[in-house]
Specification:
This protein is α/β, with parallel strands linked by helices and 491 residues long. The chain contains 17 helices and 19 strands. Helix 2 packs across helix 17. It is globular and about 65 Å long. The structure holds flavin-adenine dinucleotide.
């Protein structure tokens, strides 16, 4: 059995550690911060409990699959609750639209939005389902070593037929003329850290998941999921070291021999880096051992960063549901100010999560837990003044669109933006999501699981295939462990 050191206790590190320990290996996870979960950390403050990162539990099959590896049922373990409505959208013209967990209601909704809207949504979601089926057969649960692993004959034929390589916006526009109908389907690309105009249409499989499989809330939120995965890892024998940043991966004869931390040194037969890929490569390794050097990263399209606000409100806020979007009827300017001319967006679209609507443990009685998220470009200037002014701007819109005053009811406030992503997670350019999912940063074009310079060094997490998101990060580690077994690396 091998001595395996994993750097980072994000979902990627938690998944890989639990699976490897289950096989009997001696696994140690070393984490810079004080708790497991990485981006899904928990902030407890003034009687509130804020999920600091992800809030959407989508694609339940992935978690079922992971929990079943340990003889468990995810929906029971996590006490999953299906949200209805799945989410609410506030448009700048005053319209408020609920997307239901019942797809039939969504057909009715689209029928109201445009002529034959129900039929168009049915046809669009059929295409999304076909993309999903192809993805599950050909694309998601596999590793990529060459471009031919991605552009397989089946992938090319189906991809061209379904226009999978065209951009997401074009794919939606082919079916829907109404700008609101378009936005109700296109918002999902923000999950991939991108813009509907730079994310390939193949990712419309996520709309199929959204409309047919639903959105859930796990007990304790997304940090509750991370804690459950941590418990599984510990029960299988994984040792965790917290508050212990790794400072160096020592390489001798092309092999990672020692992991140096702020406290001590660890010997390893195999090392898996779940920390930000750029950090693992360019900070923890000497230049001669780097597969992807600084100039590689400089050329990449980074996913969005975020302006986050964790707000405790000393009253109930009417009109909100668990997940709420606030969209301008014209939103391209916002995306342009992320990807084309990076700057703080003048007229932001944003998301507000209000978990206290269904979970009474996240806020004191009679109060509300609000999480504001504005997608912004990575690497922007980030001062206390800018972030405060920006929150003001967003709250002004929120109050106008919902008709609910909250400014004078804020009893606790924490802001989190670029410099926090850098300081807390060592995130390159302060990005929240790593690399965007443009076509040329998909599958085989994402950084590899295996270092090409250090023979026993591997990577897992949102930078690897299949990419950004909680379920995809779990899959990334499942793929890695599978590959290690198939290639006999663990014997
Ligand atoms: C605000 C926000 C909202 C999101 N919303 C959603 C959502 O609703 N649904 C969804 O599916 N996805 C969402 N995502 C994306 C999802 O959270 C991430 O893709 C996923 O959590 C990434 O996991 P990971 O394991 O790759 O990396 P991380 O979570 O970044 O884990 C890496 C770990 O490595 C540690 N580390 C870094 N450097 C070192 C070092 N030198 N030594 C030791 N440890 C180190 C870090 O502290 C961290 O704990 C969101 C992300 C953010 C930021």
């Amino acid at each position: 059995m091998k001595d395996i050191v994993i750097i980072g206790a994000g979902y990627g590190g938690l998944t890989a550690s639990a699976l490897l320990a289950k096989e009997g290996h001696n696994v140690t996870v070393i984490e810079k911060n004080e708790q497991p979960g990485g981006k899904a950390s928990l902030l407890e403050k003034d009687g509130f409990a804020f999920d600091m990162g992800p809030s959407w539990y989508m694609w339940p099959q992935v978690f079922e699959n992971f929990f079943s590896e340990f003889g468990m049922d995810a929906s029971e373990e996590l006490e999953l609750e299906r949200l209805d409505p799945s989410y609410r959208v506030f448009f700048s013209d005053g319209d408020t639209i609920d997307v239901s967990s019942d797809v039939n209601k969504n057909y009715e909704l689209f029928e109201e939005l445009e002529e034959n809207g129900a039929e168009k949504l049915r046809k669009y979601l059929d295409v999304c389902k076909r993309q999903y089926d192809i993805a599950m057969d050909e694309f998601v649960y596999r590793s990529y070593n060459s471009i031919f692993d991605f552009f397989t004959p089946k992938m090319i034929v189906n991809g061209l037929k379904l226009k999978a390589f065209s951009n997401f916006h074009k794919g939606v526009k082919k079916y829907f003329k109404n700008p609101k109908a378009q936005k109700l389907l296109e918002w999902i690309t923000v999950f991939l850290g991108g813009d509907p105009r730079n994310v390939p249409a193949m990712y419309c499989m996520m709309s199929y998941l959204d409309h047919h499989h639903g959105i859930f809330y796990p007990k304790g939120g997304m940090n509750g999921l991370a804690k459950k995965m941590y418990d599984i890892a510990v029960d299988n024998g994984v040792k965790f070291k917290f508050n212990e940043p790794v400072t160096k991966i020592n390489v001798e004869n092309k092999s990672a021999k020692k992991i140096i931390t702020s406290k001590k040194e660890y010997d390893a037969d195999l090392v898996i880096n779940n920390a930000d890929y750029h950090h693992g490569e360019t900070v923890l390794l000497d230049e001669k051992n780097q597969t992807y050097k600084e100039k590689y990263w400089n050329k990449k399209t980074m996913a969005v960063s975020m302006h986050l606000a964790y707000l405790g409100i000393d009253k109930k806020v009417n009109g909100l549901t668990h997940h709420n979007y606030f969209f301008e009827t014209e939103w391209n300017e916002h995306f342009d100010q992320i990807f084309k001319k990076p700057q703080w967006p003048d007229n932001p679209n944003f998301y507000v999560c209000c978990p206290s609507k269904i979970d009474n443990t996240v806020a004191p009685e009679g109060m509300e837990n609000l999480f504001f998220l504005v997608p912004v470009a990575s690497d922007l200037e980030d001062s206390d003044q800018i972030r405060d002014e920006y929150l003001d701007k967003v709250i002004e819109k929120f109050e106008k669109w919902t008709g609910e005053k909250i400014r004078d009811n804020i009893v606790t406030k924490s802001l989190f933006t670029h410099r926090d992503f850098k300081e807390r997670y060592n995130a390159y350019k302060g990005t929240g999501l790593g690399m965007a999912h443009t076509l040329w940063q998909t599958a085989v074009f994402r950084p590899k699981h295996k270092s090409s310079k250090v023979e026993n060094l591997y990577y897992t997490g949102q930078y690897n295939h299949p990419g950004v998101g909680v379920p995809t990060t779990v899959i990334s580690s499942q793929i890695l462990v599978d590959e290690l077994n198939k290639k006999g690396v663990l014997t």
